[in-house]
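Subject: Predicted fold for Pseudouridine synthase, 243 residues

User T.R. writes:
Posting the sequence so we have a shared reference for the thread.
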Amino acid sequence: MRLDKFIANFTLYSRKEVKKLIRAKRITVNDSIASRPEMQVDEEADTISLDGQWIGYEPYIYYLLNKPQNCLSTTRPGPTAIVTDFLPANEVEIYQPFPVGRLDKDTEGLLLLTNDGDFAHDLLSPKKLVSKEYYAEIEGIVTEEDVKAFAKGLTIDQGDHCAPSQLDILATDPAKNRSEITVTLTEGKYHQVKRMFQAVGKEVIYLQRFRIGSLYLPEELELGQTFKLLPEEAQLALKNETK
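User M.O. replies:
I've generated the structure tokens; pasting them so everyone works from the same file.
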């Protein structure tokens, strides 16, 4: 790759600005001052620096976001906060990451953002059957009959059929008519968890996703905070857990 193209790709400098940096002798390649913008560099093997600071080759980025409520899973700016608002602005501009799938506006928890299209395709592919686990607080008492109905596969509104899912009851409070549950899905239908509980006569009042595949939401990660993943850490999302 041309030196000026490499630096423009992985910094906020334009190629015109990079040429000025080269003329000012601020760019080095393998500790030697670069003199030509058209110089060919090996982006994976050569060490390229600006003012002594290494410019790393990073074709793909992976971020784990603890998504807060009142935030849209989109990259399109609008009156409401969007998920890329929580990433470093320079990386958003350089890499243009996007959310892998979506969480509803009022749903919290684990959301992945990346610029790796193949990774996103694999994670969302129905053939991969990637499991996603949610914690929810429910208006109503969740019963063993509901557990069986979820395991069998529910038909929800408009005749939409859901694949079998695992529903676990954590606690029930008859006095408050409330339940706490976890549910594990391998699909991602629109408002699926909410619609599934509506199908059994109950309402989701709080929803959080805390696991995708074998990748968990870190307990210490506050709402609105992000954690940059190594490629091998991101791959955990594609490896289902066995319970």
